Amino acid sequence: MPTIHILNGPNLNLLGHRQPEIYGRETLDDVRAACVALGATLGLTVDLFQSNHEGVILDQIHAARHAAQGIVINPGAYTHTSVAILDALNAFEGPVIEVHISNVHKREAFRHHSYVSLRAEGVIAGLGTEGYQAAVRRMATLLARA
Ligand code: CA2
To answer: Any alpha helices (H) in 2-129, and if so which ranges?
Structure first.
């Protein structure tokens, strides 16, 4: 079975515990359970990771080069700042889908630019945590084509 890694950046460990008006009430464990179950119906193995540290996220992207066929990534605030994450994703050969829980385009101007979008096959924003499941579905389509 193809494997996809869902990578999450800083502060996303707080999902479901703080600011539910922006990020909803589901926790990252809820997201993991929903995506693993959905992946099983689509013939995909799904692993989910989160780190508050840029270097650890770089290591997770490097590890995915040998362990995963696709990456779904919500880089959190690093979306808007990290050329290093873009560079690491450029060294990954499979499809990349960028997810944002909130509609970043409805928020502050500094959230409107994403370095990661230069690499992503698709970008999902504003669907809440359902966006992760939309990304898993799209990844199944992309990997079936590969
Ligand atoms: O909408 C998204 O998914 C973001 O990637 C979330 C980032 C933000 O910096 C991006 O501009 C958009 C922030 C993640 C913070 O996550 C929290 C979750 C719950 C409570 C507090 C923070």
So the answer is: 20-23, 28-42, 54-67, 83-90
CB 129 near ligand 1, within 6 Å: no
Over range 61-76, report the average pLDDT: 98
What mean pLDDT is reported for the chain?
97
Residue with CA nearest ligand 1 atom 7: 76
DSSP code string of 96-129: EEEEESS-GGGS-GGGS--SGGGT-SEEEESSTT
**Nearest CA residue ID for atom 6, ligand 1:** 76
80 is catalytic: no
**Ligand 1 binding pocket includes 18 (Cβ within 6 Å):** yes
**CATH of the domain spanning 3-145:** 3.40.50.9100
- Checking if the pLDDT of 146 tops 90, the result is no
The residue ranges of every structural domain in the chain are 3-145
pLDDT in tens, 32-62: 999 999 999 999 999 999 999 999 999 999 9
Residue 132 annotated as catalytic: no
Which DSSP category does 18 fall into? S
pTM of the shown model: 0.98
